[in-house]
């Protein structure tokens, strides 16, 4: 029995919650996965996994063994990288997840630069705004806008994104263009509901050192960025969003910036990954490339500084 291979199979079963999913992920026959685990349990003399009709979960011994396996396998990968060409030429599959807007508008258009630099890394990219269980779903790294809520993950800051206040031309024609925050009393907003925390977001403005929340009447609340923009374009009220996501609509005139001289708080863009992945050379080079990408001008994350906020 190849013990390191058995450990790799065992950790993937724990992370994905099933033999079949682990076999598919590792591109191994399912029978081979079952045999390896039986051999591993016989070798150790303990039961590592509890099997039910619905799921597979580690026993107490299995959970303890999983933690040790993760550390050993990570140390092995890093040690091999130090003494091999993988440090200069990392290879293998990198599973990443990010909001669809960041993926479509910023990361994927620039991705040929990364794959040309690291041709032996194969990328699997998930695009959604929903929370991801990195361990159970086998995801190596996620990009998220806003504050990082999971303190168990390593957080690498990428950028502070400029935000703008937006409305559709039809909405402004019906309600009127506000000239100041006082004028917002006659307006409506689209409410954004975080699919991660369930928190509801209205509008916020930065006035000097003061952060002022403005909650307007609403008829629509959504929990995705695409739905947020669609509701705004349909005339349901004001929204606030990262500038990069609104660049095309502003250029085309399908959305209009409202109160351009009234500052909106910036939004953090962060890369998150499990602690046991921080030694992975694939994760390292990808996150380093993201830092480089986000620092380039013209990507829409930062725009020309607007005039100072209007004091009320």
Can you walk me through this structure?
There is one protein chain. The chain has 9 helices and 15 strands. It has 312 residues and is an alpha+beta fold. The chain has 3 domains: 81 residues, Arc Repressor Mutant, subunit A, CATH 1.10.10.10; 91 residues, 3-Layer(aba) Sandwich (D-Maltodextrin-Binding Protein, domain 2); 103 residues, D-Maltodextrin-Binding Protein, domain 2, CATH 3.40.190.10. Strands 4-3-5-15-6 form a 5-stranded mixed sheet, covered by helices on one side. The protein has a 3-stranded antiparallel sheet with strand order 13-7-14. It has a 3-stranded mixed sheet with strand order 9-8-12, with helices on one face. It is elongated, with a radius of gyration of 24 Å. It starts with a helix and ends in an 18-residue tail after the last helix. The C terminus is likely disordered.
């Amino acid at each position: 029995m190849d013990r390191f291979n058995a450990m790799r199979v065992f950790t993937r079963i724990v992370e994905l919650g099933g033999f079949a999913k682990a076999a598919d992920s590792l591109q191994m026959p399912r029978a081979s996965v079952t045999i390896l685990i039986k051999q591993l349990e016989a070798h150790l003399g303990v039961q590592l996994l509890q099997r039910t009709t619905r799921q597979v979960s580690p026993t107490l011994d299995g959970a303890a063994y999983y933690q040790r396996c993760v550390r050993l396998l990570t140390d092995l990968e890093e040690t091999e990288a130090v003494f091999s060409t993988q440090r200069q030429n990392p290879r293998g599959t990198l599973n990443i997840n990010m909001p669809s807007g960041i993926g479509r508008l910023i990361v994927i258009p620039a991705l040929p630069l990364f794959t040309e630099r690291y041709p032996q890394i194969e990328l699997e990219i998930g695009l959604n705004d929903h929370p991801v269980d990195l361990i159970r779903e086998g995801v190596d790294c996620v990009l998220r806008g806003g504050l990082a809520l999971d303190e168990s993950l390593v957080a690498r800051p990428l950028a502070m994104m400029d935000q703008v206040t937006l409305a559709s031309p039809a909405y402004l024609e019906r309600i009127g263009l506000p000239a100041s925050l006082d004028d917002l009393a006659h307006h409506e907003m689209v409410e954004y509901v975080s699919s991660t925390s369930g928190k509801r977001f209205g509008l916020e403005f930065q006035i000097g050192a003061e952060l002022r929340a403005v909650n307007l009447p609403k008829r629509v609340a959504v929990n995705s960025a695409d739905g947020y923009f669609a509701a705004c374009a349909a005339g349901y009220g004001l929204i606030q969003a990262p500038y990069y996501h609104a660049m095309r609509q502003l250029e085309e005139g399908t959305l209009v910036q409202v109160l351009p001289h009234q500052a909106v708080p910036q939004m953090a863009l962060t890369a998150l990954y499990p602690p046991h992945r921080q030694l992975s050379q694939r994760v390292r080079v990808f996150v380093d490339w993201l830092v480089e990408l986000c620092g380039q001008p013209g990507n829409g994350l930062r725009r020309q500084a607007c005039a100072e906020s209007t004091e009320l």
